[in-house]
Predict the 3D structure of the following.
Amino acid sequence: MTMLKRREILAGAAGLALFGGRAARAETARERGLRIATDASNRRGGYRDISATGEMVLRTASNQTSNRRFDASWIDAGRNDSRSLLIFRWPGDIRNTALLTHAYPTKTDDQWLFLPAMERVRRIRGSGRSGSFVGSEFAFEDMVDQEVAKFDHIWIADERCPGSGTCHVIDMIPRSPSGYSRQRVWLDTKELRLQRVQYFYRGGAHLKTLTVGKYRLYNNRFWRAGQMVMENHLTGAGTTLNWKDYVFDRGLNANAFTVNALRRIN
C-alpha cells in the first residue's frame, strides 16, 4: 500500500469518527434560516419587562408630516404569553388611544384597540390585522413580535447590510393567515439585529420596506433600535417610529396588560 493511499484511508476514518460514523451533511436553506432566526429571537429575550417612550411621525406622499407621542411597555406574562401595550399621549385628539397585544408562540395573537372618544374597545380580528394601525403605514400585525414558530425561514444569502457590515438575508413565509405572502429580512451577522424588512403582497408585489437603525446597547446586554422607518411603495407615504428611554425589569404588573385595564387608562 502506498503512503498516499494510507493517508487517504486514515483521513477517511478520522472523518467517520468525528461525525459519528456518518458523512457530514450540509445545512439546507430552511435549516440555516431557522437556526439564525431562533438565535436572533433568543438574543432579543431574557427580560421580565420593558418600558419605553416614542414618537410616531406620519408623512404623506406630498411630504406633509404630523407627530404623535406614546408610551410603550412589554411584559413576559408566563405560560408562553407575552404582552405589549402602546398608549398615545399626545396630541389631544388621539390621547389615551391604546393598542393591547397578547402574543403567543404558535396560536393567533390577540389584539384590542381602545378608542377613548367612543369609550369602546375594539378587538382586531382576521383580515383586520392587515389594516392600518391608527392611519400609519404600520399594520396591526406589524406591531407584534414575529414569533419564530409562526413562519418558515429560508436563508437566501449573506450580503452587505443596508448600512455597513454583512447581513444574513432570510425569507419568512407565514404559516397562518397574514396580509403578506412573505417578509424578506436582513439581520447583521455580528449581533443578529434587524436591519431591514421587505413586505410582499400575496400577489408578489413589493408593498413596503422597513428600515431599522440607531441601535443602542442597554444594560450591557440588550440591543434596541432607536428608529424604525416604514415606507409604502404603493402610496409613497411613510411612518417613522423614534424610540428612547428604554428601561428593563422595573417590575411592571401583568394586570395592567388586560382588556379591563384599557378602560382605566389616564
User: Anything to note?
Assistant: Confidence is low (pLDDT under 50) at residues 1-21. Residues 30-262 form a domain with the outer membrane lipoprotein receptor (LolB), chain A fold (CATH 2.50.20.10). DSSP finds three helices and 15 strands in the chain. Residues 214 and 226 are 5 Å apart (CA to CA).
